[in-house]
Amino acid sequence: MTFKPAHLLVVLLATALPAMAQTLATVNGKTIPTSRLETLVKQVTAQGQQQDSPQLRAMLRQELINREVLIQEAEKSGLANNAEVKQAIEASRQSILVRALMIEQLKKSPVSDAEVQAEYDKLKAQAGDKEYHLYHILLEKEDEAKAIISKLKAGAKFEELAKQSKDAGSASKGGDLDWSTPNNWDPTFATAVKALQKGQFTETPVKSQAGFHIIKLDDTRTAKFPTMEEVKPQFVEGLQQQRVQAYQQTLIKKAKIQ
User: Which Gene3D superfamilies does the record cross-reference, listed alphabetically (predicted)?
Assistant: First the structure.
């Protein structure tokens, strides 16, 4: 078959276009594939700070070209054979592989909506339906706490005595701990608080890992727990971390380590 010049030009263009479409740029004879730009665009837009646009693509294209120029110069200088550079490249390779393995595992065993709901319900139950506005005085020794309680019973002001507290964060505020929920407290601390009425303070020292407390209940209110929609991403991330850690421990147990 004989091609006329015009027909030959059409054939050459048809075969060249796919290859050209896959090449973003050529730097000193080395091509940068378009796929590299697409990957970079996905990474940048996934952060949510920029949207895909011709301007963004032009900027990232130039960045890839600049990077290629520098890489070629580094290789020409023999830096690829530098021991520290090799170690850094190997460390990056390992991190990428580990991350890819964990992502693959999460694809095989994704966190379900039922798991997220169960975790949400558990934490909501632990938080309870009340918040407490508390004041406290923390002492190192039980006798010191008893002496403070005696002074309070005699009419001394809680806020003044709180200056003696070893909890520096609240001592300067009259012992004010602000609003909080029982799930954040030491169990003995929580039990003592729940037995108080508004305005009352504990008449015996409450021992915790931090020392001995005198606790005063200022007020209570209905707890405001965030909705599932507000916290679902954090719950998903937390459960994913648990799943990845469990998978990692399973592999470590199976491994022959000497």
Answer: 1.10.8.1040, 3.10.50.40
Q: Which of 133, 127, 129 is nearest to 219 (CA)?
A: 133
| Average of per-residue pLDDT across 58-85 | 95
**Taking the CB of residue 135, how many other CB atoms lie within 10 A of it?**
21
In terms of residues, how long is the chain?
258
- Domain limits, the chain: 5-93, 128-222
CATH of domain 128-222: 3.10.50.40
Q: Is-contact 219 199, C-beta < 8 A?
A: no
To the question of pTM greater than 0.90 for the whole model, the response is no
Q: pLDDT tens-digit profile of 135-194?
A: 999 999 999 999 999 999 999 999 999 999 999 999 999 999 999 988 878 999 999 999
Structure tokens at 23: 């090449």
The closest of 221, 226, 224 to 133, measured between CA atoms, is 221
Do 124 and 224 form a contact (C-beta atoms < 8 A)? no
**Which pLDDT band, with edges at 50, 70 and 90, does 7 fall under?**
low
Looking at every residue in the chain, the average pLDDT score rounds to: 90
Q: Collect all residues with Cβ–Cβ distance below 8 Å to 139 and sequence separation of at least 6.
A: 145, 148, 164, 165, 166, 205, 211, 212, 213, 214
Query: Confidence band (pLDDT; 50, 70, 90) for 255?
Result: very high
Rg (CA), the chain: 32
DSSP classification of residue 163: G
Closest residue by Cα to residue 176 from 191, 162, 193: 162
CB 134 within 8 A of CB 189: no
List, in sequence order, every residue forming a beta bridge with 136; answer none if it has no partner. 215
